[in-house]
Amino acid sequence: MTRLSEMMEKQPRLLSSKLFQRHRQFEVVLNRSVLAWKEIERSRQRSSGISSESETVSYVRRTGQHQWRCSDVTFHCANQALCEEWIQVINEQLSLLASRPKSLLVYINPYGGKRRGKRIYEQKVAPLFRRASISADVIVTERANHARDHLKTEANLDKYDGVVCVGGDGMFSEILHGLVTRTQTDHGVDQNQPDAELVPCSLRIGIIPAGSTDCICFATVGTNDPVTSALHIIVGDSQPMDVCSVHHNDFFLRYSVSLLGYGFYGDVLTDSERKRWLGPARYDLSGVKTFLSHNYYEGTVSFLPAEDDMGNPRDKLQCRSGCHVCQHKPSSKDKPWETSEEKEKSDKDSSSGWSVIRGKFIAINAASMSCACPRSPKGLSPSAHLADGTTDLILVRKCSRFDFLRHLLRHTNKEDQFDHSFVEVHRVRTFRFQPRHQEPVSLEDLSETPKKKGFGPICSGQMTCNYSKAQSSWTCDGEILPHAAIQASVQCQLIRLFARGIEEQQQQQ
After folding, report:
1. How far is it, in rounded angstroms, from Cα 129 to Cα 341?
2. Displacement of CA 121 from its chain's centroid (Å)
3. Paired residues of 296 in beta bridges
4. Helix 281-293 / helix 264-273 crossing angle, nearest 10 deg
5. Burial class (CB in 10 A: 0-12, 13-18, 19+), 422
6. Cβ neighbours of residue 75 under 8 Å, at least 6 residues apart?
7. Angle between helices 146-153 and 169-186 (to 10 degrees)
8. Helix (H, G, I), strand (E, B) or coil at 176
9. How far apart are CA 337 and CA 211, in angstroms?
């Protein structure tokens, strides 16, 4: 109550009355940002004989584990005039909150996850939107990329205050690509140019989790709960988020907000795509098969490190609501594309700031957020930030299968997963990867049924299998990229979500 009292004193009171609730008397105070009430001594006047005029206020109640719920409190007033005054002033203040959306465009994926998207929206979300006087135009998608294509060409975005996706990470990716592409088209920006400065999206994106994986929601809210996400939308929260643009030469491939993975995670996804008939179990099976195969890949990684004041991936500073690291936007004077190929030929060019690493890698991962999920509570990079203009580049060099297993197991516990001689991590603003052996990979090839073959040789604990001439694929937020040679550049705070980041325990209280 001390913090609340301080907040109340900073702004002049708009209304202050003694009201009754459940035979108890409360002092209720309203200023421009806070409605607060506290009980007056029980020995004072009771509500007997008080008029039955009443007003009901809906508010957000935190229930722990980052979940929110909508609750009501009903106050009884001494007379009708006082009741009407409270209702009028509260509604006036709510109307002045420009951050709260009034009209939303909602896309529902009816097939994602356990096919619960439509039911989740109708039963848990729509009633809350109606209660908050939010109008919603709902589109139930009928095919893959329906939402993306509609946003790119048909949607009249001027009508809305935000776009909401009901589904999993795949549905969010559709909304992301549709909205970002539409914004660049409207502003005449060519996405195929790696050096293009993209225009931030004006509309916020809301995520109602209803998929088999909801990592983006988990990383920005702290829970995969549809009601909590709906309430974040209603109160008008705004969380900026970085987006990685991924190119092959001068051709745009995809956007990424969570994980770009080459080697191990790319192989897992590639193999799992051939086993879609297994459902979610395909990821476990493909993971075991890929681990036993123990492939490594040769190539060159070039990257532009982030500034020293952006922290580092091992500083144990987690990105939370109100993160001061994310509030410090990098200056635009030193853009990552202001370099040349010639400057990268040396292993370290002090004038350009680029670093070049050549080697044999089991995995190359770029985490633009922690990538935390129930299976990996701390994620692939626990100290990665949502909106600081960087991504954490994790290089896992060729090592024994036993050592790689040690590294993987640390994703499930609290030990430092980077504390291995064969693992290095860098906070970067942009990076390039060039495989040693160039072999184009087509999406059509990935869908073909592969020839039957075994898991590959089982290596001893001190040996690794030699697949140095093989080439892996990149997984980009769960989608396979058709090229291995890529450039990824972080577009700082390109989008905003209806979220506020994960709240600390004291914030929850």
Report:
1. 52
2. 20
3. none
4. 130
5. middle
6. 19, 20, 21, 26, 28, 37, 54, 55, 56, 57, 86
7. 20
8. helix
9. 36
Tokens of residue 115, six digits: 């096919």
Rg of the chain's alpha carbons, rounded to an integer? 26
How far is 269 from 424, CA to CA, in rounded Å?
A: 23
461 CA to centre of own chain: 37
Pairing of strands 297-305, 251-256: unpaired
How do the pLDDT tens digits run along the chain, 509 residues long?
A: 444 555 556 678 889 998 888 778 888 999 887 888 888 866 445 445 555 688 889 999 999 889 999 999 999 888 889 989 999 999 999 889 999 999 999 999 998 777 899 999 999 999 999 999 999 999 999 999 999 999 999 999 999 999 999 999 999 999 999 999 999 999 999 999 999 999 999 999 999 999 877 889 998 999 999 999 999 999 999 999 999 999 999 999 999 999 999 999 999 999 988 887 777 778 889 999 999 999 999 999 999 999 888 889 999 999 999 999 998 765 544 444 444 444 444 444 444 789 999 999 999 999 999 998 777 888 899 999 999 999 999 999 999 999 999 999 998 888 899 999 999 999 999 999 999 876 444 444 444 444 433 333 334 344 444 444 478 999 999 999 999 999 999 999 999 999 999 998 655 54
DSSP, residue by residue, 198-229: PPPPSSEEEEEE-SS--HHHHHHHSS--HHHH
For residue 283, give both structure tokens: 């990821």
Residue whose token pair is 């975005």: 157
What is the spatial distance between Cα 159 and Cα 257, in angstroms, rounded to a whole number? Answer: 26
Contact 381, 367 (CB under 8 A): yes
Cβ–Cβ < 8 Å for 23, 46 = yes
Q: DSSP secondary-structure letter at 461?
A: T
Two structure tokens written together for 488:
């990824």
CB-based burial label for 200 (10 Å; 0-12, 13-18, 19+): middle
Spell out the residues 6+ positions from residue 26 whose beta carbon is closer than 8 angstroms to its own. 18, 19, 20, 37, 38, 39, 40, 75
Closest CA to 453 of 296, 263, 293, 266: 293
Handedness of CA 336, 341, 346, 351 (dihedral sign): negative
Tokens of 468: 């140095």
| CB neighbourhood size of 259 (10 A) | 23
pTM score > 0.70 for this model? yes
Give residue 239's region: left, alpha or beta (phi > 0; psi -120 to 50): beta
Do the beta carbons of residue 464 and residue 282 sit within 8 Å?
A: no
Which residues form the catalytic set? 169
